[in-house]
Amino acid sequence: MNKKKSASAGIMSFCGEYSYILVFIAIFIVYAFTSSGLTWSGVMNVFRHSAVIGIIGIGMGLVCLTGEIDLSVGAMLALDGGFSVIIFNMTDSILLTFLFAIVFGAFCGLVNGVMVGLVEMPAFIVTLATMLMYRSFAQYFCQHMDKVLIGNGSSVYKMASDKNSYQMLYNMGNGKAASIPYVGIVLIVLTILFVFVTTSTKYGKKVYAVGSNLKGARMAGINVAAMKVSVFAICGALVGVAAFLWIAMNASCDPATTGTSYEMYAIAAVVLGGISMSGGKGRCLGILFGAMSYTVIDKIIVSLKMDSLINNAIKGMILLIVIMIQVAGPKIRGKLK
Questions:
Q1: N or C: which end of the chain has fewer CB within 10 A?
Q2: Domains (ranges, CATH) in the chain?
Q3: Are strands 252-253 and 176-177 parallel, antiparallel or unpaired?
Q4: CB within 8 A of 63, min separation 6: which ones?
Q5: Rounded to 5°, angle at Cα 242 from 185 and 268
Q6: According to the model, what pLDDT value does residue 328 have?
Q7: Cross-strand partners of 157
Q8: Please, are residues 103 and 240 in contact by the beta-carbon 8 Å criterion?
Q9: pLDDT level of residue 209 (50, 70, 90 thresholds)
């Protein structure tokens, strides 16, 4: 009897620890059955369509590991993407555009971090306010910037197609290497980088410590305020990377719609990836699978020819189920021991 309990506990422990992989496999199997001809190219496109949300999700994951949240990432994507288009049109430089996107994103994240970490304002309120601010700024400046810089008075930030670097940047956003989309490769590389940072560096251990036990982290000599400021700044920088990839893929940025609900999608990718919203638990690797799971759900809805308006309802139900598993799993494992 004890052996059976031990085996059951081991299975439950595995399922709980790697639930993000099991969830992705289950969703992908459904997609394979509903798709009318699954191809290798179609599978690889999952990486392409997951790139922006996945990269934003990594930043959100770091914030959530400290027990905080950032609701401004979607609006930040629109603001950073729009301004990056302007920088590209002014400079005709891919490198300067990329550097600007990262630095400006880090600055936007730093604004959140200072108010949450140093001023000690609630992250929910701070990032809700900056979400409104960043979206408003994106729309305002699109209407009032020099018309030449945003596409002859358009309500959308548009990259100038007559620039020498335009085609190269667009090819970067839509090209492939050995059938893997470039943007997917960026997502994989960043995932590997932050898996290493969170598991094998002192900084990563401090992030987990802050999220696990705030008072204990302070007593251990960790500068909690600085850690919170840093994770918000890193999150902003990753939104900057995502914004750069967005304009590379789309050659434009709509301040009214770009990034809409992306804060929710990023949080969902984080939760599907097994990171606890209370902080201190989870792995960055799970975010990759969480983001891909959401992408595959979109594809299932399309392949089933369902009304796209039901998309978010299905995602919401899946999110609730995963959270339920996260909450109930430890209780079940406790009873089996």
A1: N
A2: 18-31+40-330 (1.10.3470)
A3: unpaired
A4: 69, 70, 123, 231, 232, 235
A5: 95
A6: 65
A7: 253
A8: yes
A9: very high
